[in-house]
Amino acid sequence: MRIIHLIKGDIVFQIKYGFYFLYVVFTVLYAFVLVILPETWQETVASLMIYSDPAAMGLFFMGAIVLFEKSQRVLNSLAVSPIHISEYILSKIISLALISEIVAMILAVISHHQNLIMVFIGTLLSSFIFSLLGLIVSTKIHSLNQFILWTVPVEILCFVPPLASIFIENQYLMVYPMTHCLSLINGKSQNDLLSILIVVIMLVCLWKIAVYMTKKMWKSVGGVHL
């Protein structure tokens, strides 16, 4: 299947350019911090680490990936190939989610997290959302500095409300989709199925936007496949 080959290609790219090495280093550092913390803090701190880094890595790295593909004219080749936009997007978000899940599960085990299944689900959904947001922004930028600038408001919207919900009880914060992502990861969701449903609805909306924006980007380099 084309999608399998695309995912393998993205993983090889990520290994070649140090994504996996970088997260080996980060994982060791995070694990060290968790080990020296009091046990009563470990699960909460691990959840914050997972949400703010491995789960969110797609937002941070998607710009570099797409800019590289633009500079190497990879997108020009993809735009006139039989590859569909949905396959291109899926390969990106799945390959990045793989790194996210590996790091997240290691941190969850070290912190003795009580619900590893919800950590897995929460990290997977969060990773997909952050990667789609990163891809949407990447379709409109032409430099890394521009990408960093454009992602600042996205980071504020994705991180401030969920983090605030830990310290402030507010009904409006609890209907915010990204708050539910963090709640799933830290095991504090009052209704897991409802939280998953809210996050999936947001994910579907972002998917449609990402497909539309990627289609426009592919058109600009010479072709499009639905």
Automatic annotation (TrEMBL):
Q: Which InterPro entries match?
A: FLQE3_permease
Pfam families named among the record's database cross-references: FLQE3_permease (PF24686)
Give TM segment ranges. Answer: 20-37, 49-68, 89-110, 116-135, 147-168, 193-211
Q: Which UniProt keywords apply?
A: Membrane, Transmembrane, Transmembrane helix
Q: What is this protein called?
A: ABC transporter permease
